[in-house]
Amino acid sequence: MKHGLFFKNFLVTACMFAVCFIVFGVTMLMMGRAFLVREQEKRLYASADEVTFLAEAVSLQDELNSLELRMSLAAISQSNDTHIFICDEFGWVITSSDTARVSPYIGRTLSENVMDQVAGAADYETISTLDGFYEERHYVVARPFGGEDGEAEGYVFVTCGADGFLRVWSGFMAAFFLIALGVLALAVGFQYLYSRRMARPLHEMADAANRFARGDYSARVSPYDEPDELGTLTEAFNGMAESLSQNE
Questions:
Q1: Residue 150 half-sphere exposure, CB side, CA atoms within 13 Å?
Q2: E runs forming strands in 77-222
């Protein structure tokens, strides 16, 4: 009970600091993650624009499976660290940017579920494995390309691995919370010591007042060096004690 008032003040201040710090930190982390995702999407869409233009030009000659187009896709892919593939309107992969002699993607078919989603959107974006097309999750953007009649002849997919980015982000989140706990511990310790320092003269005044009540007028409060209200109160209390002692 003796330390109740300052303990409550310390607890409230520490809790307010903790809540503000955590809310601010989580907000900044989420904003940072959203910014990085948007930048990733911009990069993928820029590649998608380039490949779509290329695919529409090549499709006029029906050379979507040509070696020249595949080499062009490989060059774009390597410059942007992405994976690119082109499929027909049914989801059958015609060509891909991977440089393997036998591509593990060419000839595969995307699921009906994926194709329904892609066909129903002008710009398709997601983070998924494309129903098992990839072993790990990827950032994916896709858009249609068409011939002279404007009908979709196929779709361009531009992707990049997402699991590595998400693992790095999870590690960053863990590091943030460890740092936050350390900062919170320091703040709580500082606030506790400061509260104890502020409470000391008041506790001494209470003890001195009890000694006065028992007839002991020699009690004094230790000087408080700060020129604030507590310092003024300490000087006034000691002045009062000195006057009481002289009168006695």
A1: 1
A2: 83-88, 93-96, 124-128, 138-146, 152-161
Looking at residue 52, its amino acid is: T
Q: In residues, how long is the chain?
A: 248
Q: 0.70 exceeded by the pTM?
A: no
* Digit-coded pLDDT (tens) for 52-68: 888 888 765 567 888 88
Alpha carbon 38 to its chain's center: 13
Rounded to whole angstroms, the Cα distance separating 202 from 230 reads: 8
Widest Cα–Cα separation across the chain: 115
Q: Cβ distance 108 to 131 under 8 Å?
A: no
Rounded to the nearest 5 degrees, what angle is found at the Cα of 165, between the Cα atoms of 162 and 169? 135
In angstroms, rounded to a whole number, what is the distance separating the alpha carbons of residues 55 and 96?
12
Q: How many angstroms separate the CA atoms of 140 and 84, rounded? A: 10
CA distances for 174 relative to 85, 179, 185, angstroms: 35, 9, 17
